[in-house]
Amino acid sequence: MHDFCFTIPYGLILVAGGVIGYLKRGSTASLAGGVGAGLTLILAGYLSLKAFEKKKNSYIAFVLETVTAAALTWIMGQRYYQTSKIMPAGIVAGISALMTGFYLYKITTGGNHFRPRLNNTVTLRYTSFNNSFKIIEARLLVLENFNYITRVVL
């Protein structure tokens, strides 16, 4: 799974949480923290997506994602330890800890991976009933989930 598939929704959740915290309790800290961290993650996810479209990795995005998630884990983890309130500190700390682990995994495994292009044409030779040779060209179409479809061209 690619990092931007989780980063952009994670950022949107943080933005929504910050806005909800501001609307319900008037907390400017929730607004600034949620919107600031969320927009940072959305930006990092966008950078990673654009790099992926070019078949490259954006290591700036990986670092930005990891640092933001680790900071949220630390800050919200401390807040949960002090208040013992599951919402929002415990949930944000837990999700951020999972995301930090995911980002560290992506960094240690080399980032987003790209499938190599393979030669997908196979030429087959067979003898028919009258002993004449015929050549069949078979094309294998590789789908995203590694199913193979064979199309025979005579």
From TrEMBL:
Keywords for this protein: Membrane, Transmembrane, Transmembrane helix
GO CC annotation, single: chloroplast inner membrane
GO MF annotation, one: fatty acid transmembrane transporter activity
Segments crossing the lipid bilayer: 7-23, 29-47, 59-80, 86-105
Domain of life: Eukaryota
Main location: membrane
Subcellular location: Membrane
Record-linked Pfam families: Tmemb_14
Family recorded in the similarity comment: Belongs to the TMEM14 family.
Name under which the protein is recorded: Protein FATTY ACID EXPORT 6
Organism the protein comes from: Hibiscus syriacus
